Structure formats: C-alpha cells, structure tokens
C-alpha cells in the first residue's frame, strides 16, 4: 500500500495518517540470516529495531527512530503439510496473498478479520480478529512460530517447543523478537452463507444472546444518531456457491460502501450538522442480501475510506450494557459521528496478551473519518469501555498504560518477565511499548 512507503525525506507514515516516524535506516532482508545480521549490527550501533508491516495499526506500535525492518521480501508459502493440516508462511506475506494461495490449494483459515491488506506477522502480533462464536482470532490459529531474538539467534516455538514463548509470542506486540515465519492451522476450503440485513438497534440488543448463540459468526454495525443497525451472519453451508454478482458487488461493496460513503464523509466534514441526516440515509442504503462463497470472499471486504479507529474488548456478558451507555453518551454529547460502530465477538483463548485471553469477549469499535477531530468522541467512548474492564486492541488508538493493562490482563507479569529474558536490553523497545509494557 502506498501509504506505508517512506516519503522523499525518509518519513514513514501509517495507513490512517496519524503516525509518522523517521528511522535512522531501513533494511529489507531477503532471508532470516540477513535479518539476524541487521539486528546484530543495530545492537552494535546502539540503535533500536522495529519491524513494520503494511502500516495498518493506528498506534505507534511499529514506529522507530532506529532501524526499521521492512519484511516485504520475506514472503510466500514455505510449506504445506496436508497430514498435519498446517501451512508455514513467511512473516511479510500479506493476508490477501495467503488467502488466495490457500484457496488455490483447496485450503482455508477457519476465521479471519474483515480486511486482508496486513502482513501475517503484523496482523497476528497486534491481535487482529474477526468475529466468531467458537473460532477465535488469527493468532489463535497459529501452531508454530519462528522469530529472531535480540541476540540475533533464531528461536522456534510451539505448544511442545518453548511453550512459554509460544503462549506469548503469538500476540507479541513486536516486543519479544522479530517474527520471520508462522505456521497456521488450516482446513479444507468450505463455503459460508452470509446473511446481511438491517435490524433496529433495540432489537439487536434485546436478542443479542440469541443472535450470538444461533450463528457461527455474528456482527453488526450501529449508525450513531439512528436507531438502525446492519447485521451480518455467516454460517457454514453445503452450497451451492452463490457469490455476489459482479455488478451487484460493485454497486454494494464499492459504490455504496466506499464511494457514496466517502462522499457522505466529505459532506459530514464540511457540514457537521448534516451528519445525523446522512446517518439516517446511510443506515437505509444497504438493503438485505444473502450470498454463499469461500471464506475469504465472505469475511473480508475492501476499505477505501481512510479512518481512525479505537476498539476495546469487553467481557461478552457486558456488551449490551456497554452499548446502551455508548448510545446515551452520543445522544447527550452533541457529538456528530458519521462512522458506524462495529460490534463483534470472540471466544476465550490461551494467548497471554490476547484481548480475549481467558475470557469470552465482545469487541466494540468506534471510528472517525481521517482528518476529523476524534479526541472528544474517543475519550468519551474510552471512559465507558474502560469502566467495563475493557482491553484495548493493540493496533488501535487508545490511551492506556502498563498500570491499567496489568489490572485487566491476569497474565501481564508473565509477558513482561519473558520480555526481560528475551530482550533484556530493550533492543525492540519504542515509545509505545514503553507505555503499554512499562520500562
């Protein structure tokens, strides 16, 4: 993506445009050995090291003034093991390429997020997730990891090998080493039927438990200033394949969801008072539809309107109450919010700093279009989300620090102790990690 390319003066910017960094140097290793060499040289030169993927994080998790590692030559599938049903992939491979390559092999991940521009290591290291009743984040599908640690050595980990590293490094925040390869569990490709339909906000909240129980993947978008939501249910299907037609797909996914939506955002920025009216129109623009296709074509969709995002995981049983408070806050505040609020779920997992670590979770994401003032809205939302012991997504805007995070993550100390062992000199440190993990 062009947004992640360095500017002429050597400045790197993220996709959302809210983070910039000027690294002392950039390296693009073509092998694990080259990366190990670059890490050792950085240590000798007294420079910190950070790997950066496609720049899709809204936090400064990848920013550095030291050595910036670009992993785009470390791409492609290393091996497919049909007996173990795993695939090993280089860390810099974009999810899009992985999904397409798997489909050609007749394979698929079990669950995925809603975009596929990120690299596999960037997506997993920050805890990227979709929605699922039984199936968890992308990182929860990892079976083994290879990473280069601070002393330049290559460490492999799995449930059997270095299990304490495996527990943490699947969502490692770039704090434990630089991931070079990931082994994912895969399964034979399957079909999903998506059912998208508008539903009143009050009904979704009243029936949330049923909607969650009855569907393998349930999510919805609520349009602030309206009583409307758009719901999406994805369930496995015996077929036949009924993809969205090319014209309908272009109209709904490109024209309405990106084109008209972008125009609505421009109007909203120019005339904030028009936002509630635009929201009412937007919430009615997308009509009900159903289609059946292979997983990545159902789970993911293009996102061309640039935005900033804050997302928190709250205990699943707290989601309805949290959303009621969020709606009351928006109605009371005089804020003008032109972007829908997205709600998804994940089952508890066993990854040390996963947002769903040890608890069934619901995700509430608030967005603002790029270039509009977002602080007031995000601050007010964050106050509500943290009151419910919310855990912020590692790659999205938040203001939490190590003191807060140690309270909401029972295994926080386990992660920082492992970091002390693997990176005692803080070679992989940056301002963001200093804030969220402590010095």
Structural class: alpha+beta
Q: Radius of gyration, rounded?
A: 21 Å
The percent range for strand residues is 15-25%
Q: Helix count? A: 14
Give the number of DSSP strands. 20
Low-confidence stretches: 1-6
Q: Taking strands numbered 1, 2, ... along the chain, how are they ordered across the largest sheet?
A: 16-13-15-14-18-19-17-20
Overall mean pLDDT score? 93
- What spatial form do the alpha-carbon principal axes imply? globular
Span between termini: 33 Å
Largest sheet: 8 strands, antiparallel
Q: Kindly state the percentage of residues in helix.
A: 25-40%
Q: How does this model look, in words?
A:
- The chain has 439 residues and is α+β, with helices and mostly antiparallel strands.
- The protein is built from 14 helices and 20 strands.
- It has helices at 32-44, 95-104, 120-125, 163-169, 201-206, 208-214, 246-270, 275-285, 295-299, 319-333, 375-387, 402-408, 412-422, 431-437, and strands at 12-13, 20-21, 25-27, 49-51, 67-69, 77-81, 86-90, 107-108, 142-148, 154-158, 178-185, 187-188, 191-200, 217-222, 228-237, 289-293, 307-315, 341-346, 361-369, 391-392.
- The protein has an 8-stranded antiparallel sheet with strand order 16-13-15-14-18-19-17-20, with helices on both faces. Strands 6-7-11-9-10 form a 5-stranded antiparallel sheet.
- A hairpin with a 5-residue loop joins β9 and β10 (154-158).
- α7 (246-270) packs antiparallel against α8 (275-285) and α10 runs antiparallel to α11 (375-387).
- The longest helix is centred in the middle third of the chain and has 25 residues, at 246-270.
- The chain is globular and about 60 Å long.
- Residues 1-6 have low confidence and may be disordered.
């Amino acid at each position: 993506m062009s947004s992640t390319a360095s500017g002429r003066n050597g400045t790197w910017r993220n996709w959302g445009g809210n983070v910039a960094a000027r690294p002392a140097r950039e390296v693009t290793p073509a092998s694990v050995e080259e990366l190990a060499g670059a890490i050792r040289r950085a240590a000798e030169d007294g420079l910190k090291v950070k790997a950066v993927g496609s720049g899709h994080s809204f936090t400064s998790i990848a920013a550095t003034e030291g050595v910036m590692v670009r992993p785009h030559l470390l791409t492609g599938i290393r091996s497919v093991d049909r007996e173990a049903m795993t695939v090993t992939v280089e860390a810099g491979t974009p999810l899009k390429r992985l999904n397409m390559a798997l489909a050609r092999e007749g394979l698929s991940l079990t669950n995925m997020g809603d975009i596929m521009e990120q690299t596999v290591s960037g997506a997993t290291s920050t805890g990227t997730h979709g929605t699922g009743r039984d199936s968890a984040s992308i990182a929860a599908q990892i079976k083994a990891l290879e990473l280069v640690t601070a002393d330049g050595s290559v460490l492999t980990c799995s449930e059997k090998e270095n299990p304490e590293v495996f527990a943490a490094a699947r969502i490692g925040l770039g704090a434990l080493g630089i991931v070079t390869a990931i082994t994912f569990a895969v399964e034979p490709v399957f079909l999903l039927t998506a059912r998208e339909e508008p539903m009143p906000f009050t009904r979704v909240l009243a029936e949330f438990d049923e909607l969650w129980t009855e569907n393998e993947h349930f999510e919805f978008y609520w349009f602030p200033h309206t009583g409307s939501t758009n719901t999406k249910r994805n369930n496995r299907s015996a077929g036949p394949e009924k993809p969205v037609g090319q014209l309908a797909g272009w109209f709904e996914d490109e024209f309405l969801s990106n084109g008209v939506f972008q125009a609505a955002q421009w109007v909203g920025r120019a005339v904030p008072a028009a936002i509630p009216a635009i929201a009412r129109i937007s919430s009615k623009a997308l009509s009900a539809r159903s289609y059946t296709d292979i997983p990545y074509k159902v789970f993911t969709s293009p996102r061309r309107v640039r935005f900033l995002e804050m997302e928190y995981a709250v205990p699943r049983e707290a989601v309805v109450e949290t959303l009621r408070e969020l709606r009351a806050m928006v109605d009371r505040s005089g804020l003008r919010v032109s972007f829908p609020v997205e709600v998804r779920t994940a089952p508890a997992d066993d990854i040390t700093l996963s947002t769903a670590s040890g608890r069934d979770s619901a995700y509430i994401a608030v967005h603002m279009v790029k270039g509009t003032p977002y602080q007031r809205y995000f601050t007010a939302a964050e106050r509500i989300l943290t009151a419910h012991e919310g855990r912020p997504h590692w790659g999205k805007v938040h203001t939490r620090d190590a003191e807060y995070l140690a309270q909401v993550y029972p295994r926080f100390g386990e992660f920082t102790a492992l970091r002390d062992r693997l990176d005692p000199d803080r070679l992989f440190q940056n301002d963001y990690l200093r804030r969220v993990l402590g010095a």
